Structures are given as structure tokens and as C-alpha cells.
Amino acid sequence: MTPPLFLLDELSDSDTIELTGDEGRHAARVKRLGVGESVLVGDGRGAVLRCSVAAVLADGLRLSVRERMSVPAARPRIVVVQALPKGDRAELAVEVLTELGADEVVPWAAERSIAQWHGARGERALEKWQRTAREAAKQSRRAWVPVVARLASTREVAGLLGDRVGVVLHEAAAVPLVSIDLAADRDIVVIVGPEGGITDTELAAFELAGAQAVRLGTPVLRTSTAGAAALAALSVRLGRWA
To answer: In CATH, what number is assigned to the domain containing residue 33?
Structure first.
């Protein structure tokens, strides 16, 4: 089984490190890791240490560093613009997008989004998305924790497209996602609409910015799962899962 991954903001250059705080307590008290067991420690930005437990402390672990690794960021990057889902489906969307390889998640205040982020409530919601992405990255042993950007308007989403390959998931589109041209040096932006669907005005704004409406297949997926399905299809085409 792959060793568990724990995340620290900064990694020490020392051959011995102490895993304390929330991560250390989780490792020692919840995971109950013992002396000699293998552990991965990363910074969420590509650096990963392969370690073994040297000692169990009162509130964490002392680790011996066995190997230092640097995992390059995926290229091209896949950015998923996720319309705000309602209820617990928001965390589900972020979780599966992270596990399946999104490099960045952009919350989008779509016209038909039921959920609304305003003021302090919006800040709390954003922090929850960021925590969810961090935990999902640990669960899936990702060396890179995806960026969770601030809430974007439709105009700001259109501005993200630039020279990237932009696709808008739309059940009525004629072009299948699997047939679009993917240039190796161009990042990809996948736009996922809300449960009520993308409005004609929003679709026109994205198409004017260079995006293309595409469909995944016959089934109509929920907003919390459509992005994950698109990521899986793109990952196969890009060779990420080879």
C-alpha cells in the first residue's frame, strides 16, 4: 500500500524532521503509525520526502528522511471552472476534481447558481473548498495541491481563456469532448455550469472569448460530477494515466 502523505508548508533540509501540529497528531493518534513505517511528507508544490518513522512523540512523529523527490507540475495544466453547486455537492465536486487531477479550480458565480457567496459567508465557503482540496490531495497522494482561486464572475471566467483551449460542457453541443484538438503547449480550461444549466448569454460570452461548447456523451451529469468526467477523458487523451 502507498504510504500516507502529510503536508507541511515548508520542508526542512535536515535528514531528520518532526511532524507535529495537526498533521503530526493525525499521524500518531489517528493513523497510529509506528517506528519503522513509511511516510510521505510533501509541501504541496512538488517536493516530496520519503521517510520512515524514527520515534513516536507525544503529539507527532520524528521522521528519518530516506529520499528527496521533486515531482514536476503537469503540462499542460487543466483548469476547471466550477459553477457553485448547492449544499454538500460543492465539497464533493472539489474532492473528485482534486483526486482526478485538476491543477486549478475556479469557483464561478453563474447566473443560475442557487448557492451564493457574499461577504464573510463567501470567505468561509472558499476556505472550505481550499481545505477540501488539500485533504483530497493527501488522500490521493498528489505532490501538487491544486490552486483554489477566488470566486469569479462570468466576465472574469471569459478573461481566463486567452490563448488556452477552452471548453464549455453543454448537453446540447454537437461536438464531443474526445474529438477536440489538444495542442501540447496550451493549457485547458473546462467550464462546468450549474444545475440549471448555462444561459445563452454566458455561453455566448465564453464562445466570444474562444471557448467551444462540447458534450461528454448521452447521459446528463450533475454539476458535481460533470467536471470529474471531463477530467478523466482529458487525462486519458493527454497521457496522464499512461
So the answer is: 2.40.240.20
Nearest to 76 by CA among 167, 6, 139: 167
95 & 189 share domain: yes
The structure's pTM equals 0.94
Give the integer Cα–Cα distance in Å for 62 and 65: 10
96: its cell numbers: 473528485
Q: Say yes or no: 33 and 100 in one domain.
A: no
Q: Do 55 and 151 belong to one domain?
A: no
CA–CA distance, 140 with 156 (Å, rounded to integer): 30
The C-alpha atoms of residue 143 and residue 57 are separated, in whole angstroms, by: 26
Give residue-wise pLDDT tens across range 95-145: 999 999 999 999 999 999 999 999 999 999 999 999 999 999 999 999 999
pLDDT in tens, 56-103: 998 899 999 999 999 999 999 999 999 999 888 999 999 999 999 999
| Residues 152 and 163 sit within 8 Å (Cβ to Cβ) | no
Task: Say if residues 128 and 91 touch (Cβ distance below 8 Å).
Answer: yes
Q: Is the same domain home to 46 and 144?
A: no
Verify that 57 and 129 share a domain, yes or no.
no
Could you tell me the three cell numbers for 7?
503536508
* Statement to judge: residues 123 and 199 lie in one domain: yes
Chain position carrying cell 472569448: 209
User: Is pLDDT at 184 greater than 80 in this prediction?
Assistant: no
CATH number at residue 233: 3.40.1280.10
Residue indicated by cell numbers 503537469: 74
For residues 242 and 108, is the Cβ–Cβ distance under 8 A?
no
Which of 16, 50, 70 lies at the terminal end of a domain, its last residue? 70
